[in-house]
Amino acid sequence: MSLADRDRACVWHPYTQMQTAPAPLGIVRAQGVYLYTEDGRRILDGISSWWVNIHGHSHPKLNEALAAQAREMEHVMFAGFTHRPAVELAERLLQVLPAGLARVFYSDNGSTAVEVALKLALQYWRNRGEDRRAFVTLEHAYHGDTVGAMSVSAESAFTRPFAPMLFPVTRAGGLEEIEARLRAGDVAAVLLEPMLQGAGGMIVWPAEFLAGVRALCDRYETLLIADEVLTGFGRTGRMLACEHAVISPDMICLSKALTGGYLPLGVTAVTAKIYDAFLSEDRTRTFFHGHSFTANPLACAVALASLDLFREESTMERVANLERWLRAGLEPLHRMAGVKEVRVIGGVGVVELESDRPGYLDSLGPRLNAAFLERGLLLRPLGNVVYFMPPYSITKDETEWSMDLIGQVLTASLV
């Protein structure tokens, strides 16, 4: 019996309508930019296995870091205890994060990193004796699938069934709308994905917009939270997307590529001002939040090794090369009938297609996904938005092959 048959008997997959979805592909091995299926096929991982893998699958250095840490210690609770990988990772992260971020709070994934930031923002103002409960986010935002993270995301098919559980937020489409809401003086924080909105359609913003949001938060004395769960660790051509506008947020959320795609780990880093607001002899001012696997040593160890690879393998130069290859391969597609726009930022290439029903539920997505997979390329279009986001270890030849294939599939599908 195949993996797919066994799977269908007992597993429920994410973002999947189990009644109509095709059988899942059984993957038995992964190496570099390739996934190897149970039936002997090789598939190029064009989305970094949901945006997490940056150095390539089964990297020897990351494998060894994981094995070495497992031989030493696999886990210990992080309340009242600490360990070397967590301390060293916090030290290393604070060296590369924007200036002013001073403390690292660990959690388990991107959603929980955002959830932590939201809770910190609310309690920060409460601890200061101010009643600020409102949040401002962007239209088309996506910040995760926990209740708080859904609340600050755009209203969509992802969040609609859970509307009774969610709290209201202001969703803005530009600086004027953000400023209009900030004038009320009750906003706890503005939350955004800097430079690149991911699941909302791979929307690219100018650096001037990001700088403008920081200026508004300063003017109206509120907090700025940067959700860099997707954009962190090189995705947009900078180590952190905030670097495009040379700004420092009050909080930054990290996950996905943090461990090179190996293990779940979340980080919410904050300024000393926020941290200090929780220091008190009064225990009710404590931040009462945690996870059983907070600061898991295995995840921290492989994250440290991933940071090492940025230096040892000139990773940011690889991203710069990838950006050039993506522009050369995708920009000619802008002339194709049915293509609305082509966007490239760092290691992310996007082709937005014309659609009568733009968005995640556009039927183009599943059809294109199947067509790419049939030809050996893993892409997972966001409805009418096709994007290519491979591990940085991809070669020029592999990138050009992928670009050619995208053009072929779109040509055949858009006639």
What does this structure look like?
This protein has 415 residues and is of the alpha/beta class. The protein has 13 helices and 16 strands. A 7-stranded mixed beta sheet has the order 4-12-11-10-7-5-6, sandwiched between helices. Helix 6 links the parallel strand 5 and strand 6 (170-172).
Average pLDDT reading: 97
Q: Report the order of strands and helices.
A: HEEEHHHEHEHEHEEEHEEEHHHEEHEEH
Specify the structural class: alpha/beta
Number of strands: 16
Tally of alpha and pi helices: 13
Biggest sheet overview: 7 strands, mixed
Question: Top keywords for this entry?
Answer:
415 residues, alpha/beta, 7-stranded mixed β-sheet, 4-stranded mixed β-sheet, 13 helices, globular
Short description:
By secondary structure, the chain is of the alpha/beta class. The chain contains 13 helices and 16 strands.
Summarize the SSE layout with pairings.
Blueprint: H1 3-8, E1 27-31, E2 34-37, E3 42-45, H2 48-51, H3 60-72, H4 84-96, E4 101-107, H5 110-127, E5 134-138, H6 147-151, E6 170-172, H7 175-182, E7 187-192, E8 196-197, E9 203-204, H8 207-219, E10 223-227, E11 251-254, E12 266-271, H9 272-276, H10 297-312, H11 315-330, E13 339-345, E14 348-353, H12 364-374, E15 377-378, E16 385-388, H13 396-413
Parallel strand pairs: 3-15, 5-6, 5-7, 7-10, 10-11
Antiparallel strand pairs: 1-2, 2-3, 4-12, 8-9, 11-12, 13-14, 14-16
